[in-house]
Amino acid sequence: MLQSKSKSLPMHPTRVIGLMSGTSVDGIDAALVEICGTDLDLKIELVAGETYSYPAELQEKILAICAGAAISMAELAELDDAIALAFSQAAQNIQIGHPPATLIGSHGQTVYHRPPQINGEKTSLPLSLGYSLQLGRGDLISRLTGITTISNFRVADIAAGGHGAPLVPRVDAYLLSHPQEGRCIQNIGGIGNVAYIPARCDNWLSQILGWDTGPGNSLLDLAVQHFTDGAKSYDENGTWAASGTPYHPLVEKWLSQDYFHLPPPKSTGRELFGVTYFNNCLQDAQVYQLSPADVLATITELTAASIVHSYRTFLPQMPQRVLLCGGGSRNLYLKHRLELLLASIPVLTTDDVGLSAAFKEAIAFAVLAYWRQLGIPGNLPAATGAEQEVLLGEVHSNSTA
Ligand SMILES: Nc1ncnc2c1ncn2[C@@H]1O[C@H](COP(=O)(O)OP(=O)(O)OP(=O)(O)O)[C@@H](O)[C@H]1O
Ligand SMILES: CC(=O)N[C@H]1[C@@H]2OC[C@@H](O2)[C@@H](O)[C@@H]1O[C@H](C)C(=O)O
Q: Is 164 annotated as a binding residue?
């Protein structure tokens, strides 16, 4: 059950910056938002939203360590600060031409994510908590911007036995619920994740679910980079994949993988759906001599089928509407395949109901920071697996400004 133990409520909207760089590592999404209310009365207005590319060298380093490259402690510290600097610049730039913000919620850059070990898995520890590392330390962002910054949102949920992800479902619940309609809010970033929000009737809050559905664009991006020798980074609008044909026996084979059959709560990352996974897909595709377009179509089908398979397997009932967000919501071929697999269920984007599909995650971290300041928990135990609701984020006050 969601509870709100709020401190005194702000009389005026609070101006907050949300900063997020996701598993695609394609740049920093910055959202400047005005927020008021707390839960069912929560309202946000997006004042400005912008994506700031990482410097190429920094992006390469991040992708390399996400793929398992070894680095020294000194390099790790340097990378942490370089990311914090890039995030600070994003926070400063997004405020140009607007009244300044009083709070920053910075997700940082995930470079490693290990879900908690589940029963039966080998571990040498009596209790095995998950581990998730986001770089771009909040204390440096706070010093560089002069704005109180909340960061490290995932650690408190993990300490409570949770996955530390997905964290957005609680925000989705208050911004995107509907009085009569059960909805799935499907993010398609590097990784996909869903929030299932039943129609707002009795006990709807206690029935909300969420989990990571598996690959979003991560494998597709790797395929495009492979087939173009790095000249292109993604399949714009899904045009290339749309010129191919999905090879269903491979989709079935890939779907038989354990992750897709694990019941929620569950989370994943590039550790599973990254370079090694893609190389295995490529090897499988070579056996059947699939063309690059067919490989792209087949990987797109894996993303679509894994999403729909998880709804059919883990939801108490299918939603009446699916709202897409994240960069993959612009992949028209992927959207078309989802529509086909979902039969009569309409598939729209959160833009269609007034919430930016591109900046929803950045907006969510602004809301989570705002909740943290008000003493309101941000996690949803049904989505993360935590033992209880907890306050999310570490506060780095701007004591020197
Ligand atoms: N016009 C487009 N057509 C097709 N795909 C697109 C388009 N625009 C963005 N994308 C895809 O969206 C990806 C970026 O999505 P997004 O920024 O939501 O991911 P992320 O936030 O990094 O990931 P996550 O949500 O897993 O943390 C790109 O890597 C690309 O694959
Ligand atoms: C560890 C981590 O960064 N996980 C991300 C990732 O990107 C999508 C999916 O996997 C999601 O569960 C999570 O982010 C979103 C913002 C979340 O926590 O809701």
A: no
Ligand 1 mutation target, pool 23, 24, 267, most atoms within 8 A of CB: 24
The pLDDT tens digits of the residues spanning 59-108 come to 999 999 999 999 999 999 999 999 999 999 999 999 999 999 999 999 99
Please, what's the b/e burial string for 55-90 (b: 16 or more CB within 10 A of its CB; e: otherwise)?
A: eeebbebbbebbeeeeeeeeeeeebbebbbbbbbbb
Q: How many helices (H) and strands (E) does the chain have?
A: 14, 12
Residue type for position 183: R
Q: Among residues 129, 124, 206, 132, which one has the least CA distance to residue 160?
A: 129
Q: Which amino acid is at 48?
A: A
Task: Select from 211, 204, 206 the least CA-distant residue to 177.
Answer: 204
> What ranges make up the beta strands (E) of 231-305?
none
Cβ of 212 less than 6 Å from ligand 1 = no
Contact 132, 158 (CB under 8 A): yes
**Residue pLDDT, tens place only, 191-242:** 999 999 999 998 999 999 999 999 999 999 999 999 999 999 999 999 999 9
Q: Distance between CA atoms of 80 and 278, rounded to whole angstroms?
A: 27
Query: What region does 201 belong to: left with phi over 0, alpha with psi -120 to 50, or beta?
Result: beta
Place of tokens 């390099």: 75
Binding site membership of 29 for ligand 2 (Cβ less than 6 Å): no
What CA–CA distance (Å, rounded) separates 356 from 306? 24
User: DSSP for 5-73?
Assistant: ---SPPSSPEEEEEEEE-TT---EEEEEEEEE-SSTT-EEEEEEEEEEPPPHHHHHHHHHHHTT----H
Distance from Cα 82 to the centre of ligand 1, integer Å: 23
Residue 234 · residue 222 · CB < 8 Å: no
Residue nearest to atom 12 of ligand 2 (CA): 166
In this structure, what token pair is assigned to residue 383?
């989505």
CA-proximal residue: ligand 1, atom 28 (nearest): 327
Whether 168 is in the pocket of ligand 2, judged by its Cβ within 6 Å, is yes
DSSP state of 216: S
What interhelical angle do 169-176 and 360-374 show, nearest 10? 100
